[in-house]
What we know:
By secondary structure, the chain is mainly alpha-helical. The chain has helices spanning 19-30, 33-37, 39-46, 50-74, 81-88, 91-120, 125-141, 144-173, 186-198, 205-209, 217-253, 258-265, 272-303, 322-338, 341-364, 376-391, 394-419. The longest helix has 37 residues, at 217-253. The radius of gyration is 20 Å and the shape is globular.
Amino acid sequence: xxxxxxxxxxxxxxxxLGVFDAVVVGLGSMIGAGIFAALAPAAAAAGSGLLIxxxxxxVVAYCNATSSARLAARYPQSGxxxxxxxxxxxxxxxxxxxxxxxxxKTASCAAMALTVGSYVWPAQAHAVAVAAxxxxxxxxxxxxxxxxxxxxxxxxxxxxxxxxxxxxxxxGGADTGRWAVGADAGLHGVLQAxxxxxxxxxxxxxxxTLGEEVRDPRRTIPRAIPLAxxxxxxxxxxxxxxxxxxxxxxxxxHTGAPLADAVRAAGVPGLAPVVRVGAAVAALxxxxxxxxxVSRTTLAMARDRHLxxxxxxxxxxxxxxxxxxxxxxxxxxALAAVADVRGAIGFSSFGVLAYYAVANASAWTxxxxxxxxxxxxxxxxxxxxxxLAFALPAASVLWGAVVIALGAAAYGLRKALARx
Length: 420
């Protein structure tokens, strides 16, 4: 009697990720470069209402996570909301979610790669960004298990750096009288801050898009997503409080490197280089998990021929969607060579919020027997996603809407040609 693990079929991915690895993949996506960069523009938008914006982003993220977890348990396949939308709302909505995710997260990959470059070697940021994409694509190509181990190490480093920042700020130069919790920038400013901060929360989708690679997905995914989100919320709240305590909302809004400036203001300038290294490592962790997730959604869409079917191939040895990995890596490398970080982040946020709006609408259709979440969850999630998306800077809303519309037009054209 053989004791070897079952092997995956030629078009199937191998299931070998447990709860711990799935949580780490989610943490590697969420606790990344966003927390090192998003605080400053969010403070500029919301002023002393920054913490309210963080709370709103957390509420929307919780609703999205809950809806995604219930759907992922029902449909444990690669593709995430692309699959859920297709199965619950129809082919068009699944396609639109997948399109928004692939396009938006490809832009996010470029932003993360450029963040690595800007911290490692600012004068050659684009070259370093391209090199990072090539290296991490190679890591993902040889197997998700190796990628999970690397992500585990990156998460440990980043958490240690953030813990040092919080400790330095709260025990060094903290002055809680310098700021107050109030939405002095108005509702729109707080919503815009929430939309910008949401960019740093969106990584729990990586767990759902790995649906074919986790053991016992009906139990593992619903446990891993809330755990990863809860840890991230605690970390972000502590870091935001620490930065506000030494810089205040005005100082935080006008800094290019908020956490490095925070430790300097706290009287620990020697920690600033460590923070810069932590930011680069965090961006690498986010990029690793992002490429992983985008390639899995590309795989799912290619299986349904919404993208070239050749991208649906799974490597016979490494059991990964190797052609999708290479294609995604090539596009991201090209974008990283020419893109602007701020524009990529805003564009990505719009696409991802559209993606989660479809996820919440899909969760609404679940029956109690299928594990439907409380009705209020998908309602708040859908409304919250749309509100945050349209509160983003005007350029992000415009370009995001244009690209989503182009995707919808391409779907319609393909259907028309198929009927002809």
